[in-house]
Specification:
The chain is of the alpha+beta class. It has one domain: Cytochrome p450 (Orthogonal Bundle), CATH 1.10.630. The chain contains twelve helices and twelve strands. A four-stranded mixed β-sheet has the order 1-2-8-5, with no helix packed on it. A two-stranded antiparallel sheet has the order 3-4. Helix 3 packs across helix 4 and helix 3 packs antiparallel against helix 7. The protein is globular.
Length: about 300
Amino acid sequence: MFDPFSQEFFDDPYKFYRCMRTEAPVYHCDQYDFDALTRDEDVATQFAVEVITAMLGIPEDHVQQVRLWTDTSLHREPGQIEMAERGRQAITESTAYFYDVVQQRRAQPGESDLFSLLMAAEIEREDGGITGLSDFEIMGFASQLGGAGAETVTKLLASAGYLFARHPDQWAKLPDDRSFISAAVEELLRYDNPVHYDVRRSVKDSTLHGVTIPIGKPVFLMLASASRDPEAWTDADVFDVERNRTEDQNLGLGYGIHSCLGAALARMETAIALEKLLDFTPRYEVDWDGCTRVQMANVGGWSSVPVRVIR
């Protein structure tokens, strides 16, 4: 049984995806009353958080606190669906913090930080009027960027360390030809996407694979499963930085109107990180026993990948 809040799912989500794509491409979960779509044909730490918080203009002494708030709000114990009290407290504290930052920028705007730029921006409202952004809108935007910047790229970089150690033949391609770095970023996003699923609600009755999803029902769009769909990718379960990218759309950072706002930044950060790893730690090994996976709502990957540099 597929349960996105179970220990078995946290440990190895891809074994569930393989079974679901083949046997139940529209999987109905009676326990939580949602449907999950897993086929490609059906889908609409520190380094990373320091980059996004610098862009926002958050003081250095609060940078890692933003990451901790996000980690706490997303954490789930096996079987836990709703946010725990610690998570709600983290949301409250982060909201209060971003509110204070907004007030500080209102009183003393900066020149290039995103808070100040957002305050200077004007948008057209639904009634045709032109207004600035409210404090609430700026806070929400900053919170979303800070959270996304603190989580997804962080998990992607951890996966990079883990996967290249598991596949040294792939890592060996990068030092002599740095042009493979961009392709490596795309393969990391495809093979071990940090965002495993997005949740939407059906806006009408829809029938897929003989299953009718009623209007208004939650639908789990399993992005990480679609990225390993053998109907979309040749040898989908093989990690290959020389993969033919024209076979299908990479869903690692969304697609179309639901593309990640920070997709270009995420790709750039990951590429820079791989460049630096090649420069400073071209040979390394992973302490496999020390690797631990995250337990979070919709975010997958590693919370710890200890490495040892080989000189």
